[in-house]
Specification:
7-stranded parallel sheet, alpha/beta, Rossmann fold
């Protein structure tokens, strides 16, 4: 029986790959055999992710490309680099996002609303548009949304609205891009990334108490590796008959 999670030789772009969930996704795809283009604004972080992959799998398995996902030209250039470097493009992961701000919507500065939409929603539009020029048959697009895109989280209404938009883009694009390309979205639950720590004003020592308070059925908070494993499923032949889905990876129903 073939390995349904083998993506050897595929070329994958992962935005927001410098740390946290993005790094977890990039490493999971590389572990399954893919070449990975690590993209983000912080060059030192994506270079570190690429170095970790290359140390584990060989010197030519990953590269870092500085990218501002809110700039359409940057996303177009990112796709072009992937094809120029590796000769093809099979997988595109729109993972960059987040908001460090938590406050009621009516108090939210207008500029933070627009910034959040640009980073979390418009970037997905730019990414898909850049990718489809190069994607071939049986290609895959994966978006990272959030539980906040389905459930209300007071203080995060701007972020929730953007992620709800990502969910609907996914469903619409599944119809528009199929059968050549399938597209899905994962909705991570509570993973204590740096952005989460800043938004909630929490430190590492605060999370054990939060874990007890949440009392998740899975028994713990999430990790980047948990999200990376789910991403691999949606980027592999194992999910070949799955598209347009918004899938919760959250340790809870």
């Amino acid at each position: 029986m073939p390995n349904l999670f083998d993506i050897t030789g595929d070329v994958a772009v992962v935005t927001g790959a410098g740390r946290g969930i993005g790094r977890g996704i990039a490493q999971a795809l590389a572990d399954a055999g893919a070449y990975v283009i690590c993209a983000a604004r912080r060059e030192n972080e994506i270079e570190e992710t690429a170095a970790l992959i290359n140390q584990a799998h060989g010197s030519n398995r990953a590269i870092a490309v500085r990218t501002d996902v809110t700039v359409a030209a940057d996303m177009d250039a990112l796709a072009d680099v992937a094809v120029r470097q590796f000769g093809r493009l099979d997988i595109w992961v729109n993972n960059a996002g987040g908001s460090p701000v938590s406050m009621p919507l009516v108090e939210l500065p207008e500029e933070e609303w627009h910034r959040t939409m640009a980073v979390n929603l418009t970037s997905v539009f730019y990414g898909v548009r850049a990718a489809v020029r190069h994607l071939g048959d049986k290609s895959r697009i994966l978006n990272t949304s959030s539980l906040a895109g389905q459930d209300p989280f007071p203080g995060s209404g701007h972020y929730s609205a953007a992620k709800a938009g990502v969910n609907m883009l996914t469903k619409t694009l599944a119809h528009e891009l199929g059968p050549k390309t399938r597209i899905n979205t994962i909705l991570p639950g509570f993973v204590p990334t740096e952005t989460v720590k800043i938004a909630l004003k929490m430190a590492d020592e605060d999370f054990p108490a939060l874990e007890q308070q949440l009392n998740l059925p899975a028994g713990r908070l999430g990790t980047p590796e948990d999200i990376g494993a789910a991403a691999l499923y949606f980027c592999s032949p194992a999910s070949e008959w799955v598209t347009g889905q918004c899938f919760r990876v959250a340790g809870t129903p």
